[in-house]
Amino acid sequence: MARSINKRVLPGFGLSLGFTLIYLSLIVLIPLSAVFLKSSTMTPHDFWQAVTAPRVVASYKLTFGASFLAACINAVFGLLLAWGLTRYTFPGRKIVDALIDLPFALPTAVAGISLTAIYAKNGWIGSFLEPHDIKIAFRPTGVLVALIFIGLPFVVRTVQPILEDLEVEFEEAAASLGANRWQSFQRVVFPTLLPALLTGFALAFARAVGEYGSVIFIAGNIPMVSEITPLIIITKLEQFDYRGATAVAAVMLVISFVMLLVINALQAWNGRRFGRNVG
């Protein structure tokens, strides 16, 4: 009797898949499911009251508003920074390129303390702004500064590889046809960079929505003014309001899932545009 031939391309795929699913369930799926299970013990009225309280709504506005504005700023200046690092050679270029990753490696609490020390009224920058009645620390503006700091690397590192792979010959061809530098960028370079730029924007936005450590120090945490949603969750936990905390967390979790779908869609679009398999 002839032996049956194993048609599986990857040996041990079943065992590897089983281990992956178990590990993913223990680390991700079960803890996240506990958030929905705990919040499901509330009545619809109590759940709605918990997630739409004025203080919570104010934190939504600050968290998502500042995150969106920070992502927009990072999209502009991240593109400029990636362009400079890719297209120009200057002294200290490698140092600047390495500093881009600093928010990834720096503990968020250290980043928050550093930004507070710089932008407080007696700080290096804040002392110059205080006489002009410009206040950054302990204001919503401080939240914006912290979110810009932690989100910038996502845009730069997403756009930079596309710029490096972009052939200069396309710009030269556009110039030979009479296009100036702005027209070449607008009609040749920017359409190519747009999928990656949108992906970097979405990553920076999603990262800013869940940021906590670098924000609480510089925000001042004033209710209805500079209080972010993650701090609302921590405050409810400290008050033993576990159901209220999980209700707000469930709202944030749903929004995070939506952002994840958007990011995956943008990455798939980027891959199809450049003929890459991202599936």
Please describe what this structure looks like.
With 279 residues, the chain is mostly helical. Helix content is 75%, strand content 0%. The protein is globular and about 70 Å long. The two termini are 40 Å apart. The model has no long low-confidence stretch (mean pLDDT 82).
Summarize the structure.
With 279 residues, this protein is mostly helical. The chain has helices spanning 13-39, 44-51, 54-87, 93-99, 102-105, 108-119, 126-129, 140-165, 168-176, 181-209, 213-219, 229-238, 242-273.
What is the topology?
Blueprint: H1 13-39, H2 44-51, H3 54-87, H4 93-99, H5 102-105, H6 108-119, H7 126-129, H8 140-165, H9 168-176, H10 181-209, H11 213-219, H12 229-238, H13 242-273
Helix pairs in contact: 1-13, 3-8, 3-10, 6-8, 6-11, 8-10, 8-11, 9-10, 10-13, 12-13
Give the CA-CA distance, first to last residue.
40 Å
- The total count of strands amounts to 0
Oligomer: single chain
Shape: globular
Point out poorly predicted stretches. Answer: none
- Percent range of helical residues: over 70%
Mean pLDDT: 82
Gyration radius from CA atoms, angstroms? 23 Å
| Estimated structural class | mainly alpha
Strand content: under 5%
Biggest sheet statistics: none
List keywords for this structure.
mainly alpha; 13 helices
